[in-house]
Amino acid sequence: MTFYPGFDHCVKQSACREDVLDAYIFYQTKLNDVLAKESNESAPNLDVKRAFAAGGSAGGTSTLCLPIDVHNYNNLKKHLEAKIVQPRAVVPAYPACLKDGYQDNPTSALEENLAKDNPEGWKAVQKLFVGRVSCSFKTNSMPLPDDHPRCIWVNSDVKYNCHNSFLWGNPPYPAAANFLNFFGPWFPPTFMLAAEGDSLIPVQHSYDVVEALKKHDVETRVGIGKNAEHGFTEWNPKLWPEGADWWTPIEEGLNWAIAKTVDAKE
């Protein structure tokens, strides 16, 4: 089974992590009971120990945080007879990571600058903030048009250097924001999908994650989207630039994860 954390506007990364962990615990402990009840069968329907996690952008960050949160949960819940099983593999794509001491502007920088530079854009973003979170898109594939409120918001966050403050809260950021410090040898095998042409999150973030995992001897692989923009794994392939071979690293990562999860003997 694939566990795919997502992310949308106005959700702090800490809240996203809590939701992802709660969903994963439900998957591990209750999903089969629910399926058995709904299907009137007593036997479990899924081998919940065979799962991998995948996600892109802030979802990629959540994917990397999930094993950390599972590890911490198990340490806190030592009295439980059964521990939550780690994903057998993780496939993050173009995640964002913060190194110690790095600080963005506070979230107020968005209103201060966008309201002045693009008043109509600011009005659209305000409506976005109070609207539905994950079901309001009128388009059914990425990338969204540049004048979409979500794109105005994200691009403006980057322009005014306050994007991380929307994810982690205003600075100073909590220690948990630098998840690179919390990896360990228990971390699942990882296949990183790196966007070489990313103009939103520098591709170096992906390589920093890989290097941090290697320090703990975690099995790592990297699939590079040559000249790929941020979000390339979510784009409709029909919208890829002519000659772009972005499917190759995506397919390699999926096949690798399937081999670790579905095809594994144990």
Please explain how this structure is put together.
It is a single chain. With 266 residues, the protein is an alpha/beta fold. It is globular and about 60 Å long. The longest helix has 19 residues, at 58-76. It has helices at 13-29, 31-39, 58-76, 108-117, 119-130, 149-159, 163-168, 204-214, 247-261, and strands at 2-3, 52-56, 89-93, 190-195, 220-225. 41% of the residues lie in helices and 9% in strands. The mean pLDDT is 86. It has two domains: 2-101 and 172-261, Alpha/Beta hydrolase fold, catalytic domain (Rossmann fold); 108-161, no CATH class. It starts with a strand and ends in a 5-residue tail after the last helix. The protein has a five-stranded parallel β-sheet, sandwiched between helices. It has nine helices and five strands; from the N terminus they run E-H-H-E-H-E-H-H-H-H-E-H-E-H. Strand 4, helix 8 (204-214) and strand 5 form a beta-alpha-beta unit.
Number of helical segments with 4 or more residues? 9
For the record, the count of structural domains works out to 2
Looking at CATH, the homologous superfamily of the largest domain is: Alpha/Beta hydrolase fold, catalytic domain
Q: Please state the structural category.
A: alpha/beta
CATH-assigned fold name of the largest domain: Rossmann fold
Q: Name the CATH architecture of the largest domain.
A: 3-Layer(aba) Sandwich
What is the CATH C-level name of the largest domain? Alpha Beta
Question: Topology, please?
Answer:
Layout lengths: L1 E2 L9 H17 L1 H9 L12 E5 L1 H19 L12 E5 L14 H10 L1 H12 L18 H11 L3 H6 L21 E6 L8 H11 L5 E6 L21 H15 L5
Parallel strand pairs: 1-2, 2-3, 3-4, 4-5
